Amino acid sequence: MKFLLKLILSTIAVLLLAEILPGVTVNNYLSAFVVALVIAVLNSIVKPILVVLTLPVTIITLGLFLLVINASIILLADYFIAGFNVSGWLWALIFSILLSIFESILHSFIKKDKK
C-alpha cells in the first residue's frame, strides 16, 4: 500500500515538473503514472549496476557523476515511454534534480511505521 502511495506522489511530482519545465512534456495522467513506475523500476534495477560500474569516476568527481547517472535514467525512461519527452541532457539533469527534491518533500508526508 505504501508503494502505491509513493507511486501516486511521484506521479504528481512528474506532472508538476512537466508543467514547470519547458523541456519536459507528459501527454496525460496515465503517461505520468507510467513514467513514475518506469523510473522506480530503473532506479531499483539499472541504477545500482551503473553506480558499481562507474564507481571510480564517481569517487574522483566526489559523487557528482551520480547526477549524470540520474539524467541517463530519465533519458532511458524517455526512450521507453511514448507519452513522455525530454528535450536533452540538460533538461534531464534539471528534471532529475527537481524530481528528487519534490519526491523527498512529498514522501515526507507519509507517516513512517514505528516498530
Automatic annotation (TrEMBL):
Source organism of the structure: Aquimarina algicola
Listed InterPro entries: Phage_holin_4_2
UniProt keyword annotations, A-Z: Membrane, Transmembrane, Transmembrane helix
TM region(s), chain numbering: 28-46, 53-77, 89-110
Keyword set includes Membrane: yes
Protein's name in the database: Phage holin family protein
Keyword Cytoplasm found: no
